[in-house]
Design a protein that fits this description.
This protein has 327 residues and is of the alpha/beta class. The protein folds into 2 domains: 206 residues, Rossmann fold (3-Layer(aba) Sandwich); 93 residues, no CATH class. It is 30% helix and 24% strand. A hairpin with a 2-residue loop joins strand 9 and strand 10. The chain is globular, with a radius of gyration of 20 Å. The structure holds iron/sulfur cluster. The site of iron/sulfur cluster has 13 residues, from loops. It comes from Kribbella pittospori. Belongs to the ABC transporter superfamily.
Length: 327
């Protein structure tokens, strides 16, 4: 059996003229966490929805463990459903208000005709830090943080190999975001599932992700081990995102100068020619407007970047300091 939990090859998802995802290649090893990062509108949630097959991709392939699920019908997908789950951003919208928490959490097992569902529901609720009595309650009686714990309990009850967590904390109060993030990290370590963690906030993944993939306007611009992306980011967009992410040290935070990208994300209907980032890139040159940069490996751990100004050894500009950096 493959050591990969997920293999996405040249994924394309177009909605009519909107090129939401345009050639994304991504792999997640069994038991590891990959963060997919980018601004809203970059297409990262669409990638997540293609992986759990809420959407049928326009092109490319999605393989879960060893199975190509890209174009399976609903019926054909059924045996694969237990291998992958998703947690959405807004727990209020994703939990059916007519059902009890117990029915919601147990639903995946009922669809699999499993026995002993109520015992499993109690176990699953305990695992996410809720008392088993919560099973009798209705989702609207719970706080936002508790509801997201219910979503996580439901997602993990079938013991999936892969969890897609789509901005799982961004709709929650700041005060509970950290506890839900810590819960996900603990569960991932204890249960060993692979995870695609989708977020607009790079700082949220610094302690959770093994690898980071950075998405801009439907494409990946940089990916690699967490230590490389945080330590020696090579793409100007990654550098700009990092410069804007808050850091815990107040002195360091005060000394920071975020790189301002100016304009909003361009439209995915008519993306810029050449490098899609050229309209906002502080160091763009003429070539960037006409030639599409290829993604190339520039360093250890398969660190890849798509930028004309970064050479094969990883040397290139850092827009945070305005200087050239060797990586
Ligand atoms: Fe900027 Fe050009 Fe690199 Fe794109 S290819 S990130 S526009 S320098």
């Amino acid at each position: 059996m493959s050591t990969l939990a997920l293999e996405v090859e040249d994924l394309v998802m177009h909605f009519g003229p909107v090129r939401a995802v345009d050639g994304v290649t991504l792999r997640i090893r069994q038991g590891s966490v990959v963060a997919l990062v980018g601004e809203s509108g970059s297409g990262k949630s669409t990638v997540g929805r293609c992986i759990v097959r809420l959407l049928e991709p326009t092109g490319g392939t999605v393989r879960l463990a060893d199975a190509d699920i890209t174009h399976l019908t609903r019926r054909q997908l059924r045996p694969h459903r237990r291998n992958v789950s998703i947690v959405f951003q807004d727990p209020a919208g994703s939990l059916d208000p007519r059902l009890s928490v117990g029915d919601i959490v147990g639903e995946p097992l009922r669809l699999m005709h499993r026995k002993d569902i109520s015992t499993k529901v109690s176990e699953s609720l305990r695992r996410v830090g809720l008392r088993p009595e919560v099973a009798q309650r209705s989702p609207h009686e719970l706080s936002g943080g508790q509801r997201q714990r219910v979503s996580i309990a439901r997602a993990l009850i079938s013991e999936p190999r892969l969890l897609v967590a789509d901005e799982p904390t961004s709709a929650l109060d700041v005060s509970v975001q950290a506890s839900v993030l810590n819960l996900l990290a603990d569960l991932q370590r204890d249960l060993g599932f692979a995870c695609l963690f989708i977020t607009h906030d790079l700082s949220a993944v610094e302690y959770l992700a093994d690898e980071v993939a950075v998405m801009y306007l439907g494409q990946l611009v940089e990916q690699g081990p967490r230590s490389r992306i945080f330590g020696v980011p090579a793409h100007p967009y990654t550098q700009a995102l990092l410069s804007a992410a808050p850091v815990p040290d107040p002195a360091e935070q005060r000394a920071r100068k975020p790189v301002l990208l100016g304009d909003d994300l361009p439209s995915a209907i008519d993306p810029p020619s050449g490098c899609r980032f050229h309209t906002r890139c502080p160091v763009a040159v003429d070539t960037c407007r006409t030639v599409i940069p290829e993604s190339r490996v520039i360093g250890e751990g398969g660190h890849q970047v798509a930028c004309h100004l970064v050479d094969d050894n990883g040397t290139g500009p850092d827009v945070r300091t305005g200087e050239g950096v060797a990586r």
